[in-house]
Amino acid sequence: MSHQTDARAPRVKNRAPAAIQITAEQLLREAQERQEVAFRAPKQRVEDFEELHEYRGRKRKEFEERIRRTRGNIKEWTAYASWEASQGEFDRSRSVYERALDVDGRNIRLWLSYTEMELKSRNVQHARNLFDRAVTLLPRIDQLWYKYVYLEELLQNVPGARQVFERWMKWEPEDKAWQAYIKMEERYGELDRASTIYERWVAIRPDPRVWVKWAKFEEERSNLEKCRQVFQTALEFFGDDEEQVEKAQAVFGAFARMETRLKEYDRARVIYKFALSRLPRSKSAALYASYTKFEKQHGDRAGVESTVLGKRRIQYEEEITNDPRNYDVWFDYARLEEDAFRADRADGGETAADAEKVREVYERAVAQVPPGSEKRFWRRYIFLWLNYALFEEIETRRFTFAKLWLMLARFEIRQLDLVAVRKTLGAAIGMCPKEALFKGYIQLELELREFDRVRTLYEKYLEYDPTNCSAWIKFAELESTLGDLQPLDMPELLWKAYIDLEVEEGERERARTLYERLLDRSGHVKVWIAYALFEGANIGAGAGDEEEQGEEDVAEENKGNPQKARAVFERGYKDLKGHEWTDRVALLEAWKTFESEHGTSEDVAHVQGLMPQATKRRRKINEAGDQEEYWDMVFADDERKANPTGFKFLQMAHAWKESQAKNSAGAIAIAAATQDGNQVTEDVEMSDAGKEASDEESDSGSDKE
User: Fold this and answer.
1) Mean pLDDT, residues 631-645
2) Are 477 and 489 in contact (CB under 8 A)?
3) Does the pLDDT of residue 540 top 60, yes or no?
4) DSSP per residue, 691-705
5) How far apart, in whole angstroms, are the C-alpha atoms of residue 378 and residue 372?
6) Is 528 exposed, middle or buried (CB count within 10 Å of its CB: 0-12, 13-18, 19+)?
7) Are 395 and 337 in contact, with CB atoms under 8 Å apart?
8) Could you give phi then psi for residue 126, rounded to 5 degrees?
9) Largest CB tally within 10 Å, which of 24, 135, 228, 282?
10) Whether residue 119 has pLDDT greater than 70
11) Whole-angstrom Cα distance, residue 235 to residue 225?
12) How confident is the model at residue 185 (pLDDT cuts 50, 70, 90)?
């Protein structure tokens, strides 16, 4: 019990206030007075150099002890180096800084303190060297570059400052660095250099604001053509992509405002309209506001109404974005577009695009199907369809609901009336051909296995839209599935038409590629001849009538090259060795005709030397060894490789025959020089007879072809 009494707090017997009250201010004053005075080192007075030396040694020892204990504390190093500099010991100060850089060479404050020490002591060259080392080690620290450039410009070393900027720009720094470089060039009147810097800046960072800054700079120095060129280049860079055009709003706006300042109102209006036609309505509010202000100041009534119309479109788009099933807004939006359509038609400016705008709004509206099946949800929605149908019936005079036609056809199918189905879909395609109608009709006939009708529908589909790649692919897949792969009747006509097209267009390289592909497939003698004549003839513009148009009218790449033609003839002659001898003879005849028109007598003689000769030969006809004589066409190069001696003898025989025709008296001398003159004469006569037979056979072969 006594223990519980002791644990309780003591009672205060006297609750009356004290006679003397102690305030908080008095407590603070007494606490301050009772504090001990902080220790202050006594001031020392140095009387001579010996004391100075002793003082410096003691201080250095203290600093060394500090940096030994806290080696990574850069403040101790900078304090040590600053003290050495204050004593005029700059070499020692540099030594301390260099030791500190070995500890933490990437500390920016250390480099700045080091360079500041050199500048205070007017050691400019040392400071330059330090800045050069610093920016080499830390090229991404803009503060070091700024101080380096400032030092060079302060010393009036403009080329040096420009050189530092060029080193800096190679690292593609932030925009402030590019602006600093441009400002420096402007201060010294180097405007062309500044324009070049803007061009480099835009190439590295093609943001709209950079394009606008560059154009404004050109405008301020009254170079208006260059200013317009900058804007046009910017718009070409951003292109027609929706996302890129959205980024370029600032460029469009600045371009239009520039033309407005120059009082080129028509140019500015074209720029505004061009931009707004490519921007989505929901993302062009700022540009529309600027355009509206422009039209109110400088436009006419029609322009103001058009801008107000665009502004209202944006308002409706914002409301629809917030609540897509707000059908009252859809009604107002559709009514707005219908009024604009009627106004354009009244002014005579109605276009298909105006009607498409109305259809687009209605299509988007009817796509917002009510969330439930209760009638109260559908009461407003159904009027969208009714208004859409009335617009198509009354305003555009046509009915273009593909889905409605298809649903009607499905209804007729359920009624088992196939004739009505085909009549319905045929009427739909005749009245308003649309892709969905063709697809639905084709699918229906596919399900009914009426493949002939499907082919007919695909043909009509492709007549309606020949650029539809999907339709071509589906048509080909159908034929492949049915196994109806028809080969081309005369593919050579297709190749010829293709090559003639490229020749007429002057596309020599494309035509050459086609010839090479055709040779890989066929290797026919006619292809070789046509290819060679193509290489030797002029093509394209100026190559039609040589009498009316000279060589100077033909482009250099379209002029014929006889050397290339000869090379093709050579390739063809070698390639046709494995073919019938008539093919090689036909090639040589064409080659000879070409050389007679474009070559020299030596070229003609070269081709003539390749012509074959008819030669009598013997061959075994049975195992008993009986032989028979036959005539064979021998080409010069083939005989030369097979029997060099016999070929030489044959050449001598032909030479004798020719000389005999010119001078009959020379025959005796040639016969005497030849060991077997009688045999030579016989071979020559048989050769002539064989050649005549060969010519007849060649003529008959040509007739067959």
Assistant:
1) 62
2) no
3) yes
4) HHHHHHHHHHHHHH-
5) 8
6) buried
7) no
8) -60, -40
9) 135
10) yes
11) 16
12) very high
Query: 3-state secondary structure string, 198-262?
Result: HHHHHHHCCCHHHHHHHHHHHHHCCCHHHHHHHHHHHHHHHCCCHHHHHHCHHHHHHHHHHHHHC
Q: How far apart are CA 169 and CA 176, in angstroms?
A: 11
How far are the Cα atoms of 101, 164, 408 from residue 562, in angstroms, in the given order? 75, 59, 70
d(CA 32, CA 29): 5
The mean-pLDDT minimum among 109-113, 205-209, 502-506 falls in 502-506
Cβ neighbours of residue 354 closer than 8 Å, sequence gap 6 or more: 340, 341, 344, 345
Q: Locate tokens 């003529």: which residue?
A: 699
119: alpha, beta or left? (left if phi > 0; alpha if psi -120 to 50): alpha
Its sign, for the CA torsion 530, 533, 537, 543, is: negative
Helix (H), strand (E), coil (C) string for 607-649: HHHCCCEEEEEEEECCCCCCEEEEEEEECHHHHHHHCHHHHHH
Residue 642 has pLDDT above 80, yes or no: no
Q: Which domains does the chain have, with CATH numbers?
A: 399-482 (1.25.40), 491-546+555-609 (no CATH), 639-704 (no CATH)
Query: Going by C-beta distance under 8 Å and a sequence separation of 6 or more, which residues neighbour residue 123?
Result: 90
pLDDT in tens, 301-354: 566 666 677 777 777 887 888 888 888 888 888 888 888 888 777 766 556 667
Structure tokens at 58: 């003691």
Tell which wins on pLDDT, 23 or 243: 23
Q: Is the distance from CB of 451 to CB of 482 less than 8 angstroms? A: yes
pLDDT above 50 (res 184): yes
> Full-prediction pTM beyond 0.90?
no
- Helix/strand number for the chain, H first, E second: 36, 2
Question: Based on C-alpha coordinates, what's the Rg of the chain?
Answer: 50
CB 436 within 8 A of CB 402: yes
pLDDT score, position 350: 57
